[in-house]
Design goal:
Largest sheet of chain A: none
Shape of chain B: globular
Largest interface: A-B, 47 and 51 residues
Largest sheet of chain B: 2 strands, antiparallel
Structural class of chain B: mainly alpha
Structural class of chain A: mainly alpha
Number of helices of chain A: 8
Order of helices and strands of chain A: HHHHHHHH
Shape of chain A: globular
Strand content of chain A: under 5%
Oligomer: heterotrimer
Distance between the termini of chain A: 63 Å
Radius of gyration of chain A: 18 Å
Distance between the termini of chain B: 29 Å
Chains: A mainly alpha, B mainly alpha, C mainly alpha
Order of helices and strands of chain B: HHEEHHHHHHHHHHHHHHHHH
Radius of gyration of chain B: 21 Å
Number of strands of chain B: 2
Number of strands of chain A: 0
Chain lengths: 216, 478, 318
Amino acid sequence: MTIDSGEVIALVGVGILLTALYLQSESFVAPLIRGVAFQSLLLGVLLGWLAWTDRSVDLAVVAGLVVVIRAAIIPYVLTRQIRAFRWKVRELHAAHRVTGHALGAVAVTVIAWIVFEETLAPLFPSAAGALPFVLLVQGLLMLATRQNTLVQVIGYLEEENAIVYAAALFARGFPLFVEVVVFLDVLGVTLVGIILSIQRDVTGTPESAHPEELTG
Amino acid sequence: MIALDPREWVLLLLLAPAGGAILALLPNARASEAAARVASTLAVAGALALLVTGATGRWGAYLGLDDLSDVFLTTVAAIYATSTWYSRRYLRAVARPFLTPQTYYALLGAFSFAMIATLLVTDLGLMWIGIEGTTVASALLIVLERRPASVEAAWRYTIIASAGLTIALFALLLLYGATGTLDAFALAAHPPALSLPMEMAVVLGLVGYGTKIGLFPLHTWLPDAHSEAPSPVSAMFSGVLLPSALYAFLRIYRVLPTPVPVSLSDLVLTFGLVTALVAAFLLQRQRSFKRLLAYSSMEAMGLALAGIALGGIAIYGALLLLVAHAFAKSAAFYCSGNVLQETGLRRIDEVRDLRYRLPFTGTAWLLAGFGVTGAPPFGMFLGEVLIVVGALATGDVTVAAILVIAILVSFLGVNSQIGQMVLGPSSAPAAPVRAGAEAGVEYAYLNLGVSLALGVASLPYLTIAIRGAAAVLGGSSP
Amino acid sequence: MTWTADAIVVLQAATVLLLSPLLAGIAGRAKAWTESRRGPSIVQPYRDLAKYLRKETLVPRGASRLFLAAPFVAFGAYLLISVVVPIITPYPIPVAPTVDFLGGGLLFGLAGIVTLVAALDAGSDYTALGASRSVSFAALAEPTLIMVFFAVAVITGTNNPYVTNNLLAASSNAYLSATHLLVTAAFFLLILAETGKLPVESAGLMELGMLEDARTFEHSGPLLGVFRWNGWMKQFLLYSVFVNVFLLPWGLDAAPTLAGAGLNIALLFGKLLLMVGVLAGLEATVAKVRLFKIRDFLALSFSLAVLSVFVFAVLGVP
């Protein structure tokens, strides 16, 4: 049975889009972590498929890295953080704004796509070309609208996914691609672990509060 | 002058901070501090040697140097050294440090290593990794004093800077797709034909690196990070980190063929002007003196970016401004560190009478205030004048007017506040000056001297390098 | 043979009119069966209609003629919809070109608006409450409906529901495309909201929790009977459009004869029974969401509809 490469790309693209929409509207943190792990898994599948069709060992390595680090290890580390901080289990202020976030996600998707079509389309002739850029903007939206630190990390992971996605689709010969991916992942894990443990040690308070002193 | 191969100085520059960072982890606190000091001094020596010999060229696949790198390297190494030497005085007085001195010096070394590495490589991707590395190292340094506000500042800095750098990485992807290479030197030597993806790459690079430079509206991490970080680290933020991020953006900007398309230079100019104006006005409302200095840095970055966008002689002015500002701002932060630790106060309206309590520090601070806001005869004044002249040369009076307004407003804001703190009378009886209260102020004077020299005289070698750097960026020199 | 075609038109309208109470009765019985009750007989809706016709009409003081006319205007809208969408034929019947898919959506909106204004006209607090609630949900449901029709239009290049039906029945590529699947999901969620199934249960007469029923609270007698019939027709039409255009477009006999049409009626009813069964099962497994969450539910359905059009724009239908 021959599988058309375009269909695999399309399928993964739709899956990633739907996951991004889900991530925007969910307010419980544990499903969010699973969601971003699933998104990374989809990316890994795409990379694996591309590695297969291109017969490229580099890409296969990257696919493996993505699946292991981004879909397994990082979510595991983050989930442990939830168990450590019981109060981070849900982001209350987002629970009240699911409609706004969902509609915002959709609006942002359309706007990002329009911007993409106006400016970048010639460089990305592939069918699903707009999707990495859309995902990037979705990650930014998540960072901007959420206050819970774990959720902000998930937004950052979504952005990284967008970069890996873009590189997978268009710049497979990108020098240092593998190294950059690894670096990003290790960086992410380290920072998350350290800063969150600092937060517990120093404050013990939930989401980024706004102390009186920080004005201006 | 020992005629060593420039390559060896480059290696020294790289190995010194790295070695210092590793050696700083020695269990003995004194040894660690000594190692850090030696390492930073060696770094300065290396940078000066490269500056004096005027070495340019490429070594290996990824290392390269030109006048632009020289200018930034000198600044980075010098501020790294003075901050490291100042740190002893600061660390002694921190009550419950979150980091041991060893960890602190190690992180400082790692921070500097990442920045120096960024300035020494030719590949845009490696530059990106270097800047991303500085985020990691500096985020932890912010949390030294174990306050809740510090943690929030560190977190906000990390997440905003990382998000911005991801956008910058996207820009690099675009650039790679459009040109097939990420070698900044090669691209500058043979600029490829302008295409829409290249322009998008520059725009995204501006937005992405702009978060680290502190451009409006991506600057929200800047005041918090500066005010919560320990003073030597704040000095490095203002004097070194922001310019390094600007350097990374300049390398991308340089890929565009000269003359730069008007739409792009206008965009950069707008960002610069808006940043400078917003910072100048936000200055007035600050209640903490460290945040005041942070907004002043933001304004300086805005002015520098505007200068780069204006082209011609304004580029020379922008570079001069960056160097002079780095030295003057670090001096200001060292003074603020002294004040903070001696008085225990952070708010402007609570600090008074510094001329009695801390005479040397107060004087230095007053002078530094002039230095960072561009009062003559400091170097920054010359830089700002050249930028305004460059604006007038393009015939755009509005831009020049906006620049002048931003400069004047920030001048008034910063200096009136500092003046109140230093010269303002206080109702409390004057406390006797504690012995050792003003330790570390010598570094402030040292840096002030450099900043002054830049304005008054043509510093040998450095001025030549700045001319060369301006030429690299396509500008002219007086 | 135009009289055959006209007869088919009448047959289609009669199907919707006469079979919709039956469908409602079967749905009620199925739901009762999942709750281990026997439930009312499946012809109970007919008896209810007869009962309503016998009762007296009370009109609130201060209500205008709109109060009396609204049920009939809505009835007329639904009747018109019943002859413009594919219910018993896969080919357009003579009256079908009156309005296309988008027009059908607008007709649904007309029926809703007229009911709404009549509710406000009644001047009662409960009807105003119901009106405001149903409007706040309609704000998200109407765009979803329109988006769904746009999605269908982009797949086929036309707003003609008959063409869509034929295309989807003929091409498995189009049927399995992401656009079609997403829009089917969106439309399904919309049907749950519009026909008042769990988790958006809008039927039920607990005063402070009333949604749909509050709008008709002040109508009585034959007026109320016509409103009830409107509700059943709406349910029948939505289900029919769903199965005939989106979910199961296959099997309709294209022969332009009365016999063919009759066969199609049976087939349609079979599909509708399947739909009723699935929905009864669904209702047994989910719980009612809080009032404020209904907005989130509808936002989700709207997002899916928009995404389906977006996916088409980005990926194209192979």
